Amino acid sequence: MITVAEAKTIISNNITPLAAIDLSLAQASGHILAEDIYANCDIPAFRQSSMDGYALKFEEDLKELTITGEMAAGAPVKSVLKAGETHRIFTGAPLPEGADTVIMQEKVSVVNGKIILQDINLKKGLNAREKGSEISAGDLAMSKGNLLTPAAIGFLAGIGVTTVSVFPMPKVAIIVTGKELQKPGLPLNFGQVYESNSYSLTAALKNEGITEITVFEADDELDILTNVLATALAKADVVLLTGGVSVGDYDFVIEASQRCGIEQLFHKVKQKPGKPLYFGKKEQQLVFGLPGNPSSVLSCYYNYVLPSLKQLSQKENTVLELKAELTVAYQKPKGLTHFLKGFYKDGQATPLNAQDSYRLSSFAQANCLICLPEEEESFKENQSVTILLLPN
To answer: For a tag on the chain, would you pick the N or C end, based on fewer CB atoms within 10 A?
Structure first.
């Protein structure tokens, strides 16, 4: 067996980020930009009003001006402002030639086709956006490596971008193994349990913006599992198997992986839950064999699978590592790192009841995993420990 730290290092060192793809801007939200983007024009492309008001050429001691025109947003024709004149103007409209300032409509009185200026703080350039004030043609608009947030998408749309090169989200296949599993909603026969791992994993993946997910089912038979695994490898960048990774008579994940040409990089980690964890690789594809117990599945997912998915798409890991104080004393045997389902609030972490690996009710209430190192066995109340704060 290897340590938790060794397992994480092996996985990280065997990941090659996915090749960049082109997506329309409408599809690119949540992805990482794979190229630098430069502006191909000035934005705004003309001097623009930032207010509803009146466009004018600023002069000291200006008192009144004659209204001779109007400029609305989207006006297709330029207008020219002569001395002593003003144009009614609206937010986003181009300033007439000769104008350099906009006075707010609340700061004037309109009398007989003229405006009487009442803004004692009026100065040249007020309420006028200069050409290229957002960005100038040829400037770097956004750097490679930026996360395309909603604001980033809007900014790129605002400078005319329609397509971007991004690092894609991985395609994931989930293989659920076990003759004892029954679909939720159907009656349970003797010896059966409801299958939940594909549901929790699919929800966790979708929570991270991963949408290309395929779920397979495989009986505990070597030939069947081998065929299903081969099919999954043809579809996915990452394959997650649940169950069948221990050493029982019906545990065929290791042998099926060998048949499919997957290189085993480790099997078994000094941890609880999730000790039988398997990790392998076929060219650039990643294969995780997760224990079948529901809490083991999620503990391994947040510790190993999710960081790998993020690394593939060059995104930051959403599982945050923090320090917290234990609210209670805790005892465990030496030799295994323990991941306790816990609840974190205001700098403190509380281990929840029902820590058994088959029990998911406590995980449903947890917002963190409390990490207790393998070499320690006694933990005091208020002792500082590492926690993994789970994504919402």
So the answer is: C
Instruction: State both tokens at 325.
Output: 């104080």
Q: What are the pLDDT digits (tens) for 309-319? A: 999 999 999 99
> Quick check: helix, strand or coil at residue 242?
strand
DSSP 8-state assignment for residue 248? S
Listed residue (77, 100, 105, 79) closest to 90, CA to CA: 105
Question: Mapping DSSP to helix (H, G, I), strand (E, B) and coil, where does residue 106 land?
Answer: helix
The rounded distance, in Å, linking the Cα atoms of 305 and 317 is 11
Q: What is the reported pTM?
A: 0.88
Alpha-carbon distances, residue 247 vs 49, 89, 268 (angstroms) = 73, 78, 11
User: What size, in residues, is the chain?
Assistant: 392
DSSP helix/strand/coil, 64 = strand
Q: Tens digits of per-residue pLDDT, 227-245?
A: 999 999 999 999 999 988 8
**Alpha-carbon separation of residue 370 from 39, 137, 176, 305, 306 (angstroms):** 47, 51, 27, 18, 17
- Going from the C-alpha of 89 to that of each of 48, 107, 344, the distances in angstroms are 10, 14, 55
Q: Is 361 in contact with 354 (CB distance < 8 Å)? A: yes
- For the cut 70, the answer to whether the pLDDT of residue 76 exceeds it is yes
Residues 219, 180: Cα–Cα separation, whole Å: 9
Whole-angstrom Cα distance, residue 177 to residue 189?
17
Q: Which of 305, 313, 169 is nearest to 242 (CA)?
A: 305
